[in-house]
Amino acid sequence: MEINNSKTPLFDKLQAFKEKGPLSLHVPGHKSGTVFAKRALNLYQSILSIDLTELSGLDDLHAPTEVISEAQTLAAKWFGAQHTYFLVGGSTVGNLAMILATCNQGDKVIVQRNCHKSILNGLELCGAHPIFVTPQFEADVDRYGGPTVQSIQDAIQLEPNVKALILTYPDYFGRTYQLDEIIKKAHQYNIPVLIDEAHGVHFSLDSSIFPNSAVELGADIVVQSAHKMAPAMTMGAYLHLGTSLVSKEKVAHYLQILQSSSPSYPIMASLDLARYYLEQISITELSKVQESVGTFRKHLAGSSNWDVLPYQVGIDDPLKITIKIKNGLSGQEIARLFEKENIYPELSTHNQILFIHGLKALDNHRQLQQSIESIKEQLKTEPKHATIEDISTYLFKSIQTLEFSYQEMKNKKTEFTSWENIENRIASEAVIPYPPGIPIIARGEIVTTQHIKMIKYLYKQGIRFQNDNIKNGLKVFLTE
User: Fold this and answer.
1) Distance of alpha carbon 291 from its chain centroid, rounded?
2) How many angstroms separate the CA atoms of 107 and 130, rounded?
3) pTM for the complete prediction?
4) Of 2, 136, 379, 458, which residue is most buried, by most CB within 10 angstroms?
5) Are 389 and 360 in contact, with CB atoms under 8 Å apart?
6) Residue 1: what pLDDT?
7) What is the mean pLDDT of residues 251-259?
């Protein structure tokens, strides 16, 4: 069958269905927007008209043979995958499915330690035994990044019979690493490589501008959040099968279990449209985006209170712009000043702020420049605080495992313990600053002095945690 990449088959079918003006005697209950709260109808009405269900001709996400199948085939062709699945539960559901399709209870799995919480949740669901590899600390950006080829080689030599290697590429800030060499190394041992590429859906664009995608580099499964860097609706994501090393049937099986039996047609159609947008964007448009990014970086430059972190072609995502705060101020303090100017960054840490430029040139640079200059002026009179601590040595051993298996954790009792009495106890809950959702402490890890110091420091800096009572302590397993 000849593939017409100028089509958006799923979206086109929904639009044609809407134009027929059909009588809705089926779910959903808003009846194509005719039953809805009046106060919100104007805002919602256009999208409700295509918020449909598995009617004749609209296909079925869980057994696609028509327009959804065609849309997924178009996506697979453009991204360079053997097969692509549409996800309506974000990268989270893709991460869970790829792990469940690859690993069984008791299997040993090499995992990059600064992974998203959904990776750890997937490992817990399948009962695998993670072998954590600590990423390298990169002084030029003052952050932990990706693993080195040597660290992965060391982990494989320690456990040559591992069932999978699970990595994050790029990191939240858009930085990549030598993934091609790591994949080659893993494949020498017939180890499938599973990639959480939530922030890299646009890496299949011009390789002279963006780093290479994990799909192009030969990963076996790649999960991408289409809604993060491409124009898809929130919760829209792709799962790409890159090779036959992982069973397509198993992936499909777990996606049927994990995804809703009533998937959102607007989200699925936006995935169809996001692929189309990426495929149709021109070199001229990308050049304008590059120019806009450069202008934004110039606006940010010249502050005595922050540095604009360097960008390396082929290694960093140019759409991610990060400033590192100095002079005793915190990322949260500076971020609040940006928000007062109606500029909302993606993320603020204790000492960095991340801005994400989209795939379109900004059209309000003059206003943006004025707002940034206003912030710089305000900071001239801002009182300085204590020096930001160096937390680069607060993390983990180079290679480590959990103290208990997930199966053992199911049957153990827990108690809440204050920070004063928690050192060397084993955490029964993860400690997760959000965003970015990367656990400082994983469930089943020993709580160290470094952990405690880091958490207290970040809490004082205003970092938000996904824990109920993090100020006072943590749940730990009872000692026998």
Assistant:
1) 26
2) 8
3) 0.95
4) 458
5) no
6) 45
7) 98
What mean pLDDT do residues 462-479 have? 90
Rounded Cα gap, residues 231 and 47, in angstroms: 15
For 154-158, 182-186, 267-271, 379-383, which range has the lowest pLDDT when averaged over its residues?
379-383
Tell me the H-state helices in 315-383: 331-340, 365-379
Mean pLDDT to the nearest integer, 66-70 = 98
Selection from 406, 444, 411 nearest residue 105 by Cα: 406
DSSP per-residue string spanning 241-298 = E-SSSS-HHHHHHHHHHHS-SS--HHHHHHHHHHHHHHHH--HHHHHHHHHHHHHHHH
Containing 133, the helix (H) or strand (E) segment is strand 129-133
Question: What does DSSP say about strands 129-133 and 399-401: parallel, antiparallel, or unpaired?
Answer: antiparallel
- Mean pLDDT to the nearest integer, 37-48: 96
| Under 8 Å between Cβ of 220 and 193 | yes
Q: CA 245, CA 11: separation in Å to the nearest integer?
A: 32
Whether residue 384 is predicted with pLDDT greater than 90 in this model: the reply is no
Amino acid type, 204 = S
| Mean pLDDT of the residues in the chain | 94
DSSP-derived letter for residue 57 is T
**Contact criterion met (CB below 8 Å) for 404 and 127:** no
